[in-house]
Every structure is written in C-alpha cells, then in structure tokens.
Specification:
With 328 residues, the chain is an alpha/beta fold. Helix 2 crosses helix 6 and helix 3 runs antiparallel to helix 4.
C-alpha cells in the first residue's frame, strides 16, 4: 500500500517486490507496465485529457518542457495494480529533442503515442502533426534498427504487430506505411470548432481510448465516419476510397504536384489554411524571463545556479556523450 510520502523510487521498489513475490495462491502475478507520450499543439488540451484519465480533480497548468506522472489500476479484485507512465511534451514543436528521453529500447514494446491537435488552430495543425510524428518515427526506427541487431525477435514482433492492424485484403494495404508504435490522434476543442456542447461526451471517449492504451481496458467498439459529426475511426477501419478526394476543383487538383494521396490532401489543406512559419510555432519564450515575475533575490540565485549548471555541463560533456539515450 503506497504512502502519501512515497517517492517515485519507493514506488519502483514496491513494484519490483510485487513481481518477485508470488501471490496467495503461490502463482506469480505479472504486473503490466505501459508508457504513453502525449504531444501536440501548445495549450491544446493534453493535460486535461491526462487528468481526466487519472480521475484527478486538478486545474490544468501549462507544460513547459517534458513532464511525467503515473497512474495505477488493478485489473481484478485483490490483484497487484498495473502501472502506466504518462509523459507530456510541452512547447508544441519547439522541444523536439526531448522526444527521445521517454522512448527507449527498454520500454518500446509497451509504448504508445497520443497526438492531440487543436482544431481551433487549423493553420498550425498540419505542420504540428507532421513535425512531431516525423521526429518520433525517426527515433523509434533508430531503436528498432538497434533491436534488429541485439534482439531481432522483439523488433520483428513490434513491426508485425503494427502491420496486423491492416488486413492484407485492405484496399490501401500497399499504400500505407504504419506508424511503428501504437498511435492515437485526438482532435481537441471540437466544441469550439463546431459550436456544440459535446465536450464531456468526447472527453469520455478519449478517456476510454487512453485507458485501453495505459491499462489494457476494453477499447470502444464504436465507429463514426460521418464528417458532420465527431469522427471516431479505429486503425484499419477506413480507406482512401471512403474518404474520397479532397474538396478542390479538378483544375486545381490538376495543378498540384503530389505523389501520394496524403501529399494531395496536404496541399489542398494548406491552400485553405496557410501554415504558420516555423518561427511562429517555435516560440520558446522562458516564463522566468518575464519581467512581471521579477523577484530580485530569486533572480540572483537563479543566475548563480545557471552558471553552476553551465559549468557542470562543460565538465560532464564527455560522460554525457557516452550515455545511451538511444539517440544514435
């Protein structure tokens, strides 16, 4: 039983002890441990979704960098609680390098990504999605390349598992390059986008979906492909023919140079919603530098600590390069 003052280290030790000690029937009880990385637009609602999934009544606060929390749930009565690690990347697309920290070769088999896109900011939507998913895909592929040499069975299992989401007789089987780990894309702020009051019902759907990724709960069997309503489409249950062509005239489409249906949709989307520049999306303003929060004694101490940190980084640069963060 965890105590109020338990640290993350205390909880980790307790979980190891549970794995090593059999239950009352003399059988070893496996404790599941999964990880999820939430990413997406700044102020897009990622924290709200996490808090709702963990049933925490807290006021969401802006995520400045990479934040961590966890949840614990039991699958059955009188069984050890499974653990889910929740990581949240702040800053939109400005802190892409931090993606490599939570995703490692040790947890990749049980890792998932939740991309939260703010529907009220269509001019940022496609660029945000593209950058975050590309950096994540590249990093995961590097890990898989390493595993192919050190543990080829695991690498093959991960790739095959994602491929199995699409049946071989699916009309787009040859066109699709599956994301290498489980991925959920959530369009947030639909109530603002569509001027309705369905936010609670939609948050409940998001909660069920995330709980499936985090704790293995049954996933929703509902499907909604009516674009006049909130979409809910599990992997493999849609197709390019069902989606249809992008909303543009034949003459406009004929002028666009695109090699894939996705490229064509991107060009039509960005013609309607011109994307913001990279500079606009990479606003990394440090709240600690905001004059409205100035406090002399604190600022002096912070400046001193910054100098100490820079000195430490210089002294430790060699050892940092030797650390394996799965970045090669």
């Amino acid at each position: 039983m965890p105590k109020a003052g338990d640290t993350l280290w205390d909880l980790a030790i307790a979980e190891v002890e549970k794995r090593e000690n059999p239950d009352d029937d003399g059988k070893r009880v496996e404790v599941w441990e999964k990880s999820i990385l939430f990413m997406g637009n700044k102020n897009g609602g990622k924290t709200t979704i996490i808090l709702r999934c963990l049933e925490r009544e807290e006021i969401p606060k802006p995520t400045l960098a990479l934040e961590y929390t966890f949840g614990r749930r039991a699958r059955r009565h009188n069984t050890p609680k499974d653990v889910a690690h929740f990581w949240e990347l702040g800053g939109g697309t400005s802190l892409l390098d931090l993606i490599r920290i939570p995703i490692t070769s040790n947890n990749i088999r049980s890792f998932a990504v939740v991309l939260v896109l703010d529907l009220s900011k269509p001019n940022e939507l496609w660029t945000t999605m593209e950058k975050l998913l590309q950096v994540t895909r590249n990093h995961v592929n590097k890990i898989l390349s390493k595993l192919e040499k050190t543990n080829p069975e695991v690498a093959t299992e991960i790739k095959q598992r994602m491929r199995n989401n699409l049946q071989r007789d699916h009309p787009d089987y040859e066109l699709v390059d599956p994301f290498p780990i489980p991925l959920v894309i959530i369009g947030s702020k639909y109530d603002i986008f569509h001027f309705t009051s369905k936010s609670e019902a939609l948050l409940l759907k998001a909660r069920v979906l995330v709980n499936h990724l985090a704790f293995g709960y049954d996933k929703s069997k509902s499907v909604s492909v009516d674009y006049g309503k909130p979409l809910f489409i599990p992997a493999g249950l849609d197709s390019l023919s069902q989606i249809g062509p992008p909303p543009a005239s034949d003459s406009d489409i004929g002028k666009m140079c695109a090699n894939t249906p996705l490229e064509l949709w991107k060009k039509v989307f960005e013609k309607t919603f011109p994307p913001k520049s990279s500079c606009d999306l990479q606003d990394t303003k440090d709240p600690a530098q905001d004059l409205q929060y100035a406090e002399y004694e604190v600022d002096v101490m912070r400046a001193q600590k910054n100098q100490e940190l820079e000195q430490y980084k210089r002294n430790a640069s060699k050892s940092w390069k030797e650390m394996d963060l799965d970045s090669d």
